[in-house]
Design a protein that fits this description.
This protein has 100 residues and is mainly alpha-helical. It contains 3 helices and no strands. The chain has helices at 12-37, 45-74, 87-99. It is elongated and about 60 Å long. It starts with 11 loop residues before the first helix and ends with a helix.
């Protein structure tokens, strides 16, 4: 598998950035929710602080990976759309990618 994108496929670096970003976000959300719902008692305070600290660390990692992903995407060829003949679908797909 090629590291860089081609006219018809995304490369391995792009795919790795994609899945790593998704994994970090999917990890950060439950950590924050669990820590937020924990009661503040002397017994749970240390665990709650650890969970929030881990949540913030994962969030910063997601931001860093996302930033690197954007920089990488700016240097790569964009593969053609699967359904390029459907103008509305292609426009919405491009719009959603830019909004994300």
């Amino acid at each position: 598998m090629a590291h860089a994108n081609t006219d018809v496929r995304f490369g391995s670096v792009t795919k790795t950035f994609h899945w790593l970003t998704a994994l970090l976000i999917i990890t950060a959300i439950p950590l924050g929710l669990i820590a937020n719902k924990m009661a503040i008692t002397p017994e749970t305070l240390a665990l709650k602080a650890q969970l929030f600290s881990l949540h913030k660390t994962v969030g910063i990692a997601a931001f860093a990976v996302g930033s690197l992903r954007i920089l990488w995407a700016m240097t790569q060829t964009k593969p053609a759309h699967i359904n390029g003949d459907r103008a509305a679908e292609t426009f919405l797909a491009d719009l959603m990618h830019w909004l994300l």
